[in-house]
Write a structure and sequence with these properties.
single chain, binds 4-fluoro-L-phenylalanine
Length: 452
Amino acid sequence: MNNKTSIQGSWASRWIFILAATGSAVGLGNIWKFPYITGENGGGAFVLVYLACILLVGIPIMMAEVFIGRRARKNPINALKDVAEESEGSKSWSIIGLMGMLAGVLIFSFYSVVGGWVLHYIKIMLTGEMLGVTSDQAGAAFGGLLEDPSTLLFWHTLFSIMTVAVVAAGVNKGIETVTRVMMPALFVLLLILLGYAMTTGSFGEGWDFMFKVDFSALTWNSALIALGHSFFTLSLGMGTIMAYGSYMTKQASIGKTVLTIGALDTLVALVAGLAIFPIIFANNMDPGAGPGLMFISLPVAFGQMPFGQLFGTLFFVLVGVAAWTSAISLLEPTVAFLVEKFKIKRITASIALGIVVWALGIACLGSFSFLSDVTFFGKNTFDFLDYITANIMLPLGGILISLFAGWVVKDKFAQDELQLSNGMFKLWNLSMKFTAPIAVAIVLYFLINPLS
Ligand code: PFF
C-alpha cells in the first residue's frame, strides 16, 4: 500500500468516505427513477434482477474505481495514467478519465434542470398550491412548468450555484461538510416518510408490489434496464468514484467499504419505493405511470392525505438533498483535473466549469420550449443527453474500467490495494476480466439495438 495523499485533501475517516460516496450514489436515480422503472417493469422480479446486477457487476466495478483512485491519489485521467504505467500498460487508458469527465459535464446539465424542478416542487408543496389538485390539474401544472423557461432558469441557476459553491469550497470544507450534515438528514427524512407510508398508505399492497416475485412480468428488456440502472445509481463508469476514492484513507478496507456503499444505495432505493408505492396505491393510482410518478401522481396523492402538505414538502426536500449531493460529485473529477493540470485555484476551476455546465443546462431546459425544434436522432437535447450518458457513456466507461483492472493492472498491484482473501480476489478478477464486461456489452448492444 502507498502512503501518498491527494493535493485536494483526504476524507477525515472511512465513514466520511462511505457517506460521501453514498451521497453521490443516492440521487434522483434512487428516488425518482428506481420507483418508476420498477413500476413500469412489473415490480418484484425486476427488483430481484436489479439486486443481482448491483452485487455481480456494480460492486466489483466500484472496487476497481476506488482502488485505481486510491493507488494514484490523482484525478481520474492521471490516476489511470499512473496505474497503467506502473503495470507497463499503455497510457492511452487515461482516455476513460476524459470520457468520464465529459459524461459528468453532460449529466450535470440535465441533472441540474431536474434538480431545479425539485426545488420548484418544494416551494409549491410548501405553499399548499398542490393541495386537493386532480391528476389532470397536476399534469397541467407539471407541463406548464416545463414550458416556462424563465421559472426553470431561475431554479436551474439556483441549483447550479448551490452545487458549484460546495465544490469550490474543497474536499474537506465543502463536500465533507455538506456530507456530514445532509446524509444523516437524508436518512432521517427517508425514515419519517417510510413511517408515514406505513401508517397512512396501503403498505401491504406496496410491499407486495415490490417484493412478490412474478417472473412472468419480467421481460428481457426489463433485465437490461435493471443492469443499465445499476450503473447510473452507483455513479459508476465516469471517474466520480475514482476521484472520491483518491481521497480515501489508506488503512480502510476497500471491499467492506464498497459493500457498505452498495448496500446503503440499494436500501435507499428500496425504502424510497416502500415510501412511494403505498401512497400511490392508497389513492388508487397507477404504479406504472412513468417519469410523472413523482411530479404528477405523488403531489395528487399527498394533496388528499392527512398532513399531506407537510409530508409532501418533506418528500421533495429529501429528493432535493439527494440530488444536490450527487450533483456535487458530478463536478468533482473535472475540478480536480483542472486544478492539478493547470495549477489554478479550486475556486477558479469550479466557477469556470460551473459556467460551462450552467450554459449547457440552458440548452436542456429549453428542450421543452424555445429549443424544442432542436433534435439529435429524433430526441430533444434533454432526452438525448440523458440517453447517451446513461445508456452509452457510463456502460462504456464501465466496460473499459473492468477490462483495464482485469487485464492491464498487474494482480500484485490490485491485490496490494484490495487486500482480499485469495478466493475473493479470484472472484473479483473473474468479474473484471469476463462477467462485468460481457454483461455490460450485452446491455449496450441491446440498448443501441432495442428489442421490439
Ligand atoms: N448516482 C446518481 C443517481 O442515482 O441519481 C447519479 C449520478 C451521480 C451518476 C454521479 C453518475 C455520477 F457520477
